[in-house]
Amino acid sequence: MPGNLGFRTAVVRLLPSYCIQNDFERARGLVQFSLSVSIAASILVAGTGIAVVYITQPVSAKALYLAMILIPFLALSDLHLGLLRGAKKMVLSLAPTQIARPAVLIVSVLIASYLLVEVSSTVAIILMFVSICLALMIQVAGFARVKSLWPETATVKMDAGKWFKIAIALFFADSFYEILNRIDIIMLGSMYDESASGIYNVAARTSAMVSIVISAVNAAAASNISEIYTTEGAGKSLQRLVSKIARWVFWFSLLISVLLAVFGKLVLSMFGNEFIAAYDVLLICIIGQVINSVAGSVGMLLNMTGNQAQVAKIYGFSAIVNVLLNYILIPEYGIYGAAYATIATTFIWNASMVYVASSRIGVNTTVLCRKTS
């Protein structure tokens, strides 16, 4: 994430607005600037990581050196994913990273495990490097083809300060969101019990299957929301699209939630019989995911309409609340305490964002919104 400093999301918001306005001078400038920032930031992050490994000299130093070298390639792959989403090339944006990269990695690991006595972490990272580079080549070639269809421009315009400010806010929003997703697992392991943390992690990650729908819809709809907001503002067209998204997200998420509730023990048993004990925690986590689906794609809407600073503040505040609740509840209730803290925080940040969307944009993102003609 520090490797592209929020530009993966920033280009999804900005590129469609420039293209719809035929401002290809700024579109080209945005591409150049985002690439420059990502390359510089990712090399800095990788260099810092290499220095830390060199100083500390852990047992897995060789593998970690190789892992750090991967960071610039991963950052550029993430950025191109955003650029292709911004250009509304959804299949081309997701296929290299979600299909080609894991497929190549799986096949290469199977071949290596057949040819070698042992597939070490070093070998695995080398194979990961190959899969990442292949996916990146596809992404770069795909976006080059998209750019070739843009009208030629005599100059390239830069709004570097504006772009960087937007990207940094998005970076903090994404960072705080990652903290919200991980801090309960970390605190549970450090304050309570590592084995309990592992069991809770499986339950939490399994419940995340419910969010597949909202992630997919967000990926597909982000550039459309940016276009509509640029051309028409927060009018009926935007409300109609957001309401349609809310209904799709809620009903499909509810369906997955019911299936997980019914077959949850079977799914958990795939990780080992000891994980069946996490079924009650899985149900609590599913409730949190349903709350998330009721609010709709509110975070994405705010990011695509210039309210990324508000998103960062809400996520930041929620992360602090989540840490405090975990600190209070985990010693007393263990994995249930972590689950209660997560569900409470999920309600807080969703309710806060729904209020901001309503008050600042005049759009109701929830499934409770009436259909608009």
| Shape label | globular
Number of domains: 2
Distance between the termini: 40 Å
Biggest sheet statistics? none
Total strands: 0
- If you compute it from the alpha carbons, what radius of gyration comes out, rounded to the nearest whole angstrom? 22 Å
What pattern of helices and strands is seen along the backbone? HHHHHHHHHHHHH
Mean pLDDT: 86
Residue share in β-strands: under 5%
How many distinct helices? 13
Structural class: mainly alpha
Low-confidence stretches: none
What does it look like?
The protein has about 375 residues and is mainly α. It folds into 2 domains: about 5-160, no CATH class; about 170-360, no CATH class. Helices cover about 80% and strands about 0% of the residues. The chain has 13 helices and no strands. The chain has helices spanning about 5-20, 25-55, 60-85, 90-115, 120-150, 160-190, 195-205, 210-230, 235-270, 280-295, 300-305, 310-335, 335-360. Helix 1 (about 5-20) runs antiparallel to helix 6 (about 160-190) and helix 3 (about 60-85) packs parallel to helix 5 (about 120-150). The two termini are about 40 Å apart. The relative contact order is 0.11. The model has no long low-confidence stretch (mean pLDDT about 85).
